[in-house]
Amino acid sequence: MDALIDKIREGRFWDFPGGVFPPERKAMSNQAPIRLLPLPEKLYITVKQHIGVEGHVRVQEGERVLKGQPLTQAMNPFAVPVHAPTSGTVTAIGPHVAAHPSGLEDLTIELTPDGKDQWCELTTLPDYQQRPKSEVIEAISRAGISGMGGAGFPTHIKVSPKKNVDFLIINGVECEPYITSDDMLMREHAWQIRQGIDVMTHLLTPKYVLIAIEDNKPEAIKAMKVACQENPNYVVCSVPTKYPAGGEKQLIQVLTGREVPSKGLPIDAGVIMQNVGTCYAVADAIFTGRPLIQRVVTVTGEALKQPQNAWALLGTPAGHLLQQAGYQSERQQQKNWIMGGPMMGFNLVDEQTPVVKITNCLLAPDDKLMPELNDEQPCIRCSACADACPASLLPQQLYWHSKAKELDKAQDYNLFDCIECGACAYVCPSQIPLVHYYRVAKAEIRTQEEEKEKADRARDRFEARKERLEQEKQEREEKHRRAAEARRKAKEARGEEDPAQAAVARAKARKSGDGDAKAGVAAAIARAKAKKQQAEGESTSTADNASTQAPDKKDKVQAAIARAKAKKAQQQSSVSEPNDGENKTATDDAKQDKVKAAIARAKAKQQAKRSESEAQPREDKQADLSKEDKVKAAVARAKAKQQAKQSESEAQPQEDKQADLSKEEKVKAAVARAKAKKQAREQKDNDQS
């Protein structure tokens, strides 16, 4: 470390690859002191003027604000507020053209000055060394300070690193042609810049502070040496003039010989870098309490009568600054205003484009020195762009892939290591605006990454919500289970039956009942089949069973009467003896009567069997019938019996004619009636069962 510092003190530095040496043209604007300008009619304060997140607007249209009053509130660590540059009224809040190469609109607060320039209450921290570092960092954040060298990174993030710092480099190189704002600031306010360096040294505790200034600024080098002579750890370094020596990575390599890795940060090499304008703003915030509301802007170019450096309030329209410098429209065929230098700046599309925290120059060149570019020519593959690139990239390859929208391949060639210095475009003989293609490709890649990040966040939110709902469901189920268990235990303690268990028991009982019902149906079907088979067996019995129905008491009486009549007729026939012809006739009649009686009994049996067979299937289906259905079946059986009795009564007169039957036939008839009685009783017993 000591050898490195000795080398730096001796003025021996390293070099970076590439680089160009364009005409400086700085003497046009560094011959007069920094000028104070009158207030413009309108101020357009862009809400986001830094890398990070915009703040939340805390004012409303029609509200009067004071100078230095916060207009936005930081809601994110990477957000810094913006403040009112002067007192006045907020007349509009909405989109307005922004200071960006795209020329697109951004959220802007329009302020109409009242001319009173009335300040709000300010808070200072002169004893910052006795205060906690967090309080000092918070004061820097409240002041809305971000890097003023071009990147616009929030300063309060940069002064609170998580790694040790070897070198704090103060960048006062200002290598781009025409621009002299940092040069004039160091000339006129070297002491205040030194105060800002003291505050940052207190926060970062670096081993050494290197103040880098190009050797084409001798007055600024002298002023800073005088301001820093009291501290031996502050080393003012006069570096060789070469564009772009003011680039962050290039300057670190020139001073320390260390290289920042690709996609890395200076802190990875043990270095923190701040611009001289940022140091001035930090001192202003800590010692006077004033937020960042103005900056020095170089207004220069051959189309101006009075090129100068001026204190420009943030939000001042570019047209107002150029008019104050004496813009001569006849020097340009059409308006060609550039915000920034000729190498890294961009053309303005509207003269109402406002000054922001990173605006260091407004350039209006004439047509002779910066003629309108012709249409680009095809690349001749001369490799001049590769020789001039200070980042050791391959601009030709990046150009082809960026133009063809092959963004993945462009990233493979380290597109984001390009610092957009414009050295490649400056030396291109085909006048190809290479940096334009690189910027467009970077913007498209950032847009894709933002969309992917949004989609990832949406997916994460969806999955988190799904997981949360599932967890809540499980918690509810567990809560209900515990509550049911508690109720069950409480009922068991009181000797009550658990409703859930009772319901389960009832369900099981119903299930077993359904099984019993099925078994009952099967048994009924079996009984019906048995009865049917029994009926079929009875139908094959002898035809002598004259009566299949059990005679009741009345039937028995009628049978007795019939027998008595038969006996009486027999006695009468025995008394009178007819002649042979008469006997023959009587015998024939008796035979005919027997035949008729047999036919009548057969018909009666057939009708009885038919009635029984019709009633039997109904009986077989009565196992599961209701009481009403059983009654109907019994009525049907009674009707069948009645019909059988009627048939038997019709056959009875034929029996009366059997008086002359022999004793053997009477015995057979009696046996048949006995069998019929027995079957009737069995049938009755079966019906009753």
Automatic annotation (TrEMBL):
The complex is composed of six subunits: RnfA, RnfB, RnfC, RnfD, RnfE and RnfG. It comes from Saliniradius amylolyticus. The gene is rnfC. [4Fe-4S] cluster 1 binds at C379, C382, C385, C428. SUPFAM superfamilies: alpha-helical ferredoxin, Nqo1 FMN-binding domain-like. One of its GO terms (cellular component) is plasma membrane. The keyword Cytoplasm does not apply. Keywords: 4Fe-4S, Cell inner membrane, Cell membrane, Electron transport, Iron, Iron-sulfur, Membrane, Metal-binding, Repeat, Translocase, Transport. GO terms for biological process: electron transport chain. Binds 2 [4Fe-4S] clusters per subunit. InterPro entries: 4Fe4S_Fe-S-bd, 4Fe4S_Fe_S_CS, Ion_transpt_RnfC/RsxC, Nuo51_FMN-bd, Nuo51_FMN-bd_sf, RnfC_N, Soluble_ligand-bd. Residues 467-689 are annotated as: Disordered. Its cofactor is [4Fe-4S] cluster. This is Ion-translocating oxidoreductase complex subunit C. GO terms for molecular function: 4 iron, 4 sulfur cluster binding; electron transfer activity; metal ion binding. It is a peripheral membrane protein. Pfam families: Complex1_51K, Fer4_7, RnfC_N, SLBB. The keyword Translocase applies. It is an enzyme of class 7 (translocase). Residues 518-527, 633-652 have a biased composition (Low complexity). Residues 536-550 have a biased composition (Polar residues). Its EC number is 7.-.-.-. It is found in: Cell inner membrane. Residues 467-497, 581-596, 609-632, 654-668, 679-689 have a biased composition (Basic and acidic residues). Belongs to the 4Fe4S bacterial-type ferredoxin family. RnfC subfamily.
